[in-house]
Specification:
The chain is an alpha+beta fold. 28% of the residues lie in helices and 26% in strands. The protein has 14 helices and 24 strands. The chain has a 7-stranded mixed sheet, with helices on both faces. Strand 1 and strand 2 form a beta hairpin. Helix 7 runs antiparallel to helix 8 and helix 9 runs parallel beside helix 10.
Amino acid sequence: MRKTKTTNGLKVNAIAGTYVVVLAFDLPENKCNGLLGFSIHRDDPQDNDSGYLEGMKAFEETDPGYPAGSLYSSKDHPFQSFQWADYSAKPGYTYTYTITALKGSPRNLLPIAATAIKVTTESPESGNHDVYFNRGTAASQEYIRRFGYVKPADVPHNRAFEWLSRGIYEAVESFVNSCVAGKHKLRIAAYEFNYEPFLRLLKTTIERGVDIEIVYDARKDSPKIENERKIALCGLTNNCTPRTEGASYISHNKFIVKYEGDNPKEVWTGGMNFSQGGIFGHSNAAHVIQDVTVAQKYAEYWECLKSNQKMIPTKKVVENISPLPHDGVAADSTCIFSPRTTLDALNLYSDFAFSAKSGLFMTFAFGINSIFKNVYRNSTAPLRFALLEKTTRAMADGPAKDQEIQDIQDLRNLPQNIFAIGDFIKDNEFLGWVKERLTGFNSKVNYIHNKFMLIDPLGKHPIVITGSANFSNASTTDNDENMLVIKDNKRVADIYLGEYMRLFSHFSFRESLKWRKPDDKPKPLRNDNVWWKDNFGTTPRANRKLFFMDMK
């Protein structure tokens, strides 16, 4: 849901996803002299709860001296930003946010304008697209506040796993449990297929009469060995077909086709592996689409994978099932499968990225491919976000890696580009924040496992590209992959944008700590009439403000 409202010159745009509400605000520049920030009050009638959103900065002269990691009410310590977000929203809730611009002094804050705006968050299950994101930020101040330095498995009553799941595992459980014996059947394509509770759920579902077949990756020892150990342990061997052809590549899909009778009806897809790390560790999205045309194509693709053909005939079948659109994509959804004979699909994604007029948002789990370096170097979009797991793909130290690091830094130096790289706080009470911990569930990708792109997400014709592929050469010509191109669906774009900004804000801050000394004091809120000035003109902050205020 998108809403906009202006009161006494204070304009507020609200973009409500499922668990995130992004709030953007603007005041005329000539009204900002002496501005100390914005307070945000949230009223929640469903839970009979109201109060101010909180942040982690305070004015030095009114700092109450809370311990490291504490939060401060924006009523007394306002946000010094023209864009904020509520990451504690619940799906399907109606909230009223009151944003107040404050001047005066830290000891005597004076409201000069206030705008109240009512929004309803999206339910993941409404419409023909259901979208779920796990927490993906296990290393966080909030985890420590809730559970301390305790491993998820040691937190009583499964509470840590529920918090980390954030509804994504419950959704896949519901997807499977909704199957009726004699009516539904499931066809699963999996890369990591070893989360024992999920495999046991499938076994129970088979035992109650639902037809389930699985194609799993068996091309390399990892994840083949663990997949087959858990498959045997859970009694699923007779329901599984190993994908072995093209042994130097990976069968990287994570989708489920749901049938009614012999007719494919809907698809669960996305970047979430059916593993502990995929569900509860690094960041992942799952996307369910109820579209019989798309479901039929996924069903045909699954049959191709099950046949385990050599690579050349596989590519021919895949390209026949999902030919690339030559005149753009139709409204709603187009699916694109791999492996393919050429990089044309990757170049198509590049064309979409170059078409961005207001904003481009991409995730990169394994470095930035040269095709997309070119996009971030030459795009005309005034705002280009990139969220990376690491600066580079896995590379040995040496000149090639040094050049790759320099290439990324050169892109970061362009004012239109805003990058963040995964990280966590490793030192206790560093800069006033407490030490964080990773789950330990993931060995290769700890933070950003998502694979999606947003083109002009707040425009009239947003495009969301999402699935299992990493926007790389190998994901296009070598690996088994699936992607959805979703056009003109503002609801889907709003959900993805909110989650993108949640992840970006989380990791951007943690990465920024690398450039500060461990004994630096936390930077307080400013009282010098300067903080707001670079939100006007042609600065990166001004570009960001303009993007969020130009909502269609």
